[in-house]
Design goal:
CATH superfamily of the largest domain: Nitrogenase molybdenum iron protein domain
Largest sheet: 6 strands, mixed
Order of helices and strands: EHEEEEEEHEEHEHHHHEEHEHEHEHHEHH
CATH topology of the largest domain: Rossmann fold
Helix content: 25-40%
Number of domains: 2
CATH architecture of the largest domain: 3-Layer(aba) Sandwich
Number of strands: 16
Number of helices: 14
Radius of gyration: 22 Å
Oligomer: single chain
Strand content: 15-25%
Distance between the termini: 29 Å
Length: 392
């Protein structure tokens, strides 16, 4: 595999950001479509196929897939081993019938317990490598590049989140023959992400082109379309929907402060957008923690008084464990106990940061049960299991 690029080795990160646009050209930018939240993003994947003749006289079919910011990436064959940035992309790979990635940025945040809901689907992460070990090491990527054929990671996420990486590190890794292919889609709060985002299913479609799994993608897309119809049936009228505050607790069991999230178009908020909830922070002075790493306390929460509190960072717990630790602490807290959500019992696990097509089905159905008391299956679990197994 090789990545098509005309960037010089001395290209800066800004040059890399522009490289995708130069390859895509004005035609793709003019062909923008609205994503699930209405924000313009890129159109369907651009895939080209070529037949190459080797020195031995045999022919091989290569193909290219284009996506910002990486531009056009050419594959001599379908990759079978890969590493991924997070659980969103890992979940896409599983939905496309692939083996799990060899490594993730943080393997602990790939919550594979959601697959317990899907017949025949399971993923063991016990031997999965976490690339983050106090920092990201370019040398570790070079070594991993000898074992995997693809890094499903936005290189600008690495450059934007770490201080010890330079563009030359990305160039050196790709020069070994293992390309980067991804777009950071889980959040839209990063200042460095000044190129088009993709919705969950736009990104999923791109990865399906890489793995040559168009039919599986279309089968999952059909499940998602039916699922959206079911969600609409349980979603109350707009004026009857609750206000929610999504936060990350400052302490795991006894939190007194929280990092606030404002619901944006990132994929990590897809279930809440689809359910049409009101963002309790939207019309306040509270800023998303991506913007200033700020926090909120119980006094401020009491002023806003959301109908529902959704606390992230608790997906490793069962619902009962969450109630017995975090919620129990709030109920005994002198200020937190006065919050409407605490008094009404509407404090829940807030869902994962990273979700792919399978995860999204599970956590959206769970969220519908939490806030709308939906008491029926909203998607066909057997059908999802069949698609993963290749029976579609």
């Amino acid at each position: 595999m090789q990545r098509s690029s005309d960037r010089p080795d001395s290209a800066t990160r800004r040059t890399f950001l522009k490289a995708g646009s130069a390859v895509l050209g004005a035609g793709l930018l003019a062909g923008c479509t609205g994503n699930e939240g209405g924000t313009p993003t890129t159109a369907a994947p651009t895939t080209t196929e070529e037949t190459e003749t080797t020195e031995e006289g045999t022919t091989t079919d290569s193909y290219s897939v284009t996506m910002e910011p990486v531009g056009e990436v050419t594959f001599d064959s379908v990759p079978t081993t890969w590493a991924a940035n997070n659980g969103s992309w890992a979940d896409m790979g599983i939905a496309l019938g692939q083996d799990p990635p060899e490594a993730l940025y943080l393997a602990s945040r790939y919550h594979t317990q959601y697959y317990d809901e899907i017949p025949g689907v399971s993923v063991d992460t016990s031997d999965m490598t976490s690339l983050w070990q106090s920092e990201l090491d370019p040398e570790a990527f070079l070594q991993l590049g000898e074992e995997v054929e693809l890094f499903v990671m936005d290189p600008n996420f690495i450059l934007g989140r770490t201080k010890n990486w330079e563009q030359t590190d990305i160039d050196q890794i790709e020069a070994t023959g293992t390309p980067f292919f991804a777009n950071s889609i889980f959040s839209r709060g990063y200042e460095w992400h000044d190129y088009p985002y993709l919705s969950l299913y736009e990104a999923f479609e791109k990865l399906a082109e890489v793995f040559d799994e168009r039919e599986r993608y279309e089968a999952m897309e059909s499940v998602h379309e039916s699922f959206q119809e079911s969600v609409a049936e349980v979603r109350p009228a707009e004026g009857e929907r609750p206000s929610v505050a999504i936060m990350w607790p400052g302490a795991p069991d006894e939190p007194d402060s929280f990092s606030p999230y404002l619901i944006d178009e990132g994929t990590s908020f897809k279930q809440w957008r689809d359910l049409g909830v009101k963002d309790a922070f939207a019309n306040t002075d509270v800023r998303d923690f991506h913007a200033n790493r700020g926090s909120v306390d119980y006094e401020l929460l009491l002023d806003i008084d959301p109908d529902v509190l959704l606390l992230r960072g608790n997906e490793h717990r069962t619902a009962e464990e969450f109630q017995d630790t975090v919620v129990a602490y709030m109920e005994d807290h002198s200020v937190a106990s006065d919050l409407t959500a605490v008094k009404s019992g509407d404090v829940y696990r807030g869902g994962p940061l990273y979700q792919g097509p399978i995860t999204n089905l599970v956590v959206t159905e769970r969220a519908a049960a939490q806030i709308y008391d939906a008491d029926r299956d909203l998607f066909d679990r057997d059908r999802v299991g069949e698609i993963v197994a290749g029976d579609f």
